């Protein structure tokens, strides 16, 4: 299919229907259960704001990835570094945030660079664990692009570690997913890891 662009919709996070009135009622009940006086100025509208905020954080922005033929035969790494992201921990519903480093070794097709950031954003709009998010981004790239290799590294600080439990602010979790030549070829793997350090 040389010279032809293809628009593909890769697998994405689940599309959910959000019941804002029910979410607002639940937020109101939680605040009351926590002893919050909802008649306090500035708090009366908090249940609505909480429901709206979580709806936004859990709604992926749809996108389609247009891929293009690799007419020039580019056969080196394509790397997008330091892509900011934020998500919600599925265990505590507290945020975690950091940067993603995403790379692929093109095969017959390439993709617009902005789509590398969009796929990270799309999968991060869910209740997540960092390990799964890392694997989802790598899986999407592998399925959508059919590249010779994929590398994804996520570095994030988790509020559930920084603000509660062990209370260790500033600590960061690092996860990786390597596929194809980025996993099997030591030279390519080392190049990728060097580029994202």
TrEMBL record:
<comment type="pathway">
    <text>Cofactor biosynthesis; 7,8-dihydroneopterin triphosphate biosynthesis; 7,8-dihydroneopterin triphosphate from GTP: step 1/1.</text>
</comment>
<dbReference type="Pfam" id="PF01227">
    <property type="entry name" value="GTP_cyclohydroI"/>
</dbReference>
<dbReference type="GO" id="GO:0003934">
    <property type="term" value="F:GTP cyclohydrolase I activity"/>
</dbReference>
<dbReference type="GO" id="GO:0005525">
    <property type="term" value="F:GTP binding"/>
</dbReference>
<keyword id="KW-0479">Metal-binding</keyword>
<feature type="binding site">
    <location>
        <position position="89"/>
    </location>
    <ligand>
        <name>Zn(2+)</name>
    </ligand>
</feature>
<dbReference type="GO" id="GO:0006730">
    <property type="term" value="P:one-carbon metabolic process"/>
</dbReference>
<feature type="binding site">
    <location>
        <position position="92"/>
    </location>
    <ligand>
        <name>Zn(2+)</name>
    </ligand>
</feature>
<feature type="binding site">
    <location>
        <position position="160"/>
    </location>
    <ligand>
        <name>Zn(2+)</name>
    </ligand>
</feature>
<keyword id="KW-0547">Nucleotide-binding</keyword>
<keyword id="KW-0342">GTP-binding</keyword>
<keyword id="KW-0862">Zinc</keyword>
<dbReference type="InterPro" id="IPR043133">
    <property type="entry name" value="GTP-CH-I_C/QueF"/>
</dbReference>
<dbReference type="GO" id="GO:0046654">
    <property type="term" value="P:tetrahydrofolate biosynthetic process"/>
</dbReference>
<keyword id="KW-0378">Hydrolase</keyword>
<comment type="subunit">
    <text>Homopolymer.</text>
</comment>
<dbReference type="GO" id="GO:0008270">
    <property type="term" value="F:zinc ion binding"/>
</dbReference>
<comment type="similarity">
    <text>Belongs to the GTP cyclohydrolase I family.</text>
</comment>
<dbReference type="InterPro" id="IPR020602">
    <property type="entry name" value="GTP_CycHdrlase_I_dom"/>
</dbReference>
<protein>
    <recommendedName>
        <fullName>GTP cyclohydrolase 1</fullName>
        <ecNumber>3.5.4.16</ecNumber>
    </recommendedName>
</protein>
<dbReference type="InterPro" id="IPR001474">
    <property type="entry name" value="GTP_CycHdrlase_I"/>
</dbReference>
<dbReference type="InterPro" id="IPR043134">
    <property type="entry name" value="GTP-CH-I_N"/>
</dbReference>
<dbReference type="GO" id="GO:0006729">
    <property type="term" value="P:tetrahydrobiopterin biosynthetic process"/>
</dbReference>
<dbReference type="GO" id="GO:0005737">
    <property type="term" value="C:cytoplasm"/>
</dbReference>
<keyword id="KW-0554">One-carbon metabolism</keyword>
<feature type="domain" description="GTP cyclohydrolase I">
    <location>
        <begin position="24"/>
        <end position="196"/>
    </location>
</feature>
């Amino acid at each position: 299919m040389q010279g032809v662009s293809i628009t593909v919709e890769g697998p994405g996070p689940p599309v959910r229907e959000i019941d804002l009135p029910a979410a607002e009622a639940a937020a109101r009940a939680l605040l009351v259960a926590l002893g919050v006086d909802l008649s306090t100025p500035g708090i009366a509208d908090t249940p609505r704001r909480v429901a709206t905020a979580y709806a936004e954080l859990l709604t992926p922005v749809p996108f389609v990835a247009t891929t293009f033929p690799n007419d020039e035969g580019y056969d080196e790494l394509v790397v997008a570094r330091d892509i900011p992201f934020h998500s919600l921990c599925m265990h505590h519903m507290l945020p975690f945030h950091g940067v993603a480093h995403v790379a692929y070794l093109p095969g017959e097709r390439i993709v617009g660079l902005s789509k590398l950031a969009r796929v990270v954003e799309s999968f991060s709009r869910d209740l997540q664990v960092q390990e799964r998010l890392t694997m989802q981004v790598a899986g999407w790239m592998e399925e959508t692009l059919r590249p010779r290799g994929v590398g994804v590294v996520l570095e994030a600080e988790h509020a559930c570690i920084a603000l509660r439990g062990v209370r260790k602010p500033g600590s960061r979790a690092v996860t990786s997913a390597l596929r194809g030549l980025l996993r099997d070829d030591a030279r390519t793997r080392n190049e990728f890891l060097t580029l994202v350090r």
